[in-house]
Amino acid sequence: MTASSSEIKPLSTPVEEVAQKLESPQDIGFVFDIDGVLLKGKKRIAEATEIITYLSKKKIPFILLTNGGGMTEKKRIDFINMTLQLTETPIHEDQLIQAHTPMKTLIPHHKRVLICGGPKDDVREVAEGYGFEDVIRPVDLIRANPTIWPYHMFTDEQIEEWGRDPASSKLDVDGTGCGENLPIDSVLCFNDSRAIGAELQVILDLLNSEDGVLGTRRTYKSGKPSIPIVFSNNDFLWSNEYKQPRFAMGALKIAVLTIYEKINGQKLEQLTLGKPEKVCYDYAHHILIDWRKVLLGEKQPGNLCLPQLNDPPINTPFKKVYMVGDNPESDITGGNNYNWGTILVRTGVYQEGDFERNPETSRPSLGIFPNVKEGVMAALKLNGLA
Ligand SMILES: [Mg+2]
């Protein structure tokens, strides 16, 4: 039996769009997804260059919000500026929030952290750049004791190049090495796993350890893990050149949650960042407000606030904020739930007919547009700014 439309609950309800006459370009703000909105793979979307240049020249505040990561904010923004050919009005790295950027806020209480995911050993540089004092990677554990996951596929050269010496990382995993085996404070999944078997094993080891000490096993079962775990996003699939979508971090998360529940008989308490989570939009809202201050000369770039997690701004200077994305499930759902206006573009994952095939998909408040430029210009016109 097919459900009638009145029985179908949308994932999120868009705000009602009303025409208004905003007075200042800084009354409005835009939050852009990157992949499928500004870039298509490694190539630019031409209209993105035009509209980003336009917004920068008009001093209209905007930031970029992506569930991607695995590299420093500086590296990604340099790549975006180069690809979009934004030599005249480059985007500042302060304007970029990657999935793992809000992890910075954890630093005061998370000194020694296991950082999972990402290509090669790149996320070690990211985490150390954020200021984490003592960064441990799964490859460090394998270097300290390969029997922790004997099926690993790292070559000797990779272990030597990417893994830290066990004495310097204080990892005496088998009790025969440096004599120290310091506890780990938390597990932070920064980016998609490249060594999913090894990561699953060591993550579950730590969540069920005695206070984060590897090689130990706690004697009780609980939904609360021995040390906290944070996932940078909940994306289940991503697209590449292959015909079918590929597993992303959400798949690792399902595996961790399922195995944890099998061991403990209770659901794992964890934190997930990224779109469409509210925690991610709260963070983004703070950064957008601060970037507006930079445009007004009230703040210097490089000196933006560090918003705390789950701490929404008390006041906002914006009369309207739009989330612009290509993915109804993350960008549009998150934006609608946050009471922002939402703009869906046709240059990415959204395909014609998706709403008919999937009536529960979140719909954008302003509409579906051929590209980012047309969407933003429609928003500016509706709000009396173009
Ligand atoms: Mg996208």
Query: How many H/I helical runs?
Result: 12
The overall pLDDT, averaged over residues, is: 94
CATH C-level class of the largest domain = Alpha Beta
Termini Cα gap: 48 Å
Number of strands: 15
- Helical fraction: 25-40%
Name of the CATH homologous superfamily of the largest domain: HAD superfamily/HAD-like
User: Mind telling me which CATH architecture of the largest domain this is?
Assistant: 3-Layer(aba) Sandwich
Radius of gyration: 22 Å
Main beta-sheet annotation: 6 strands, parallel
Bound molecules: magnesium ion
Written as H for each helix and E for each strand, in order along the chain, the element string is EEEHEHEEHEHHHEHEEEHEHEHEHEH
**Shape, per Cα inertia axes:** elongated
Strand content: 5-15%
The count of domains is 2
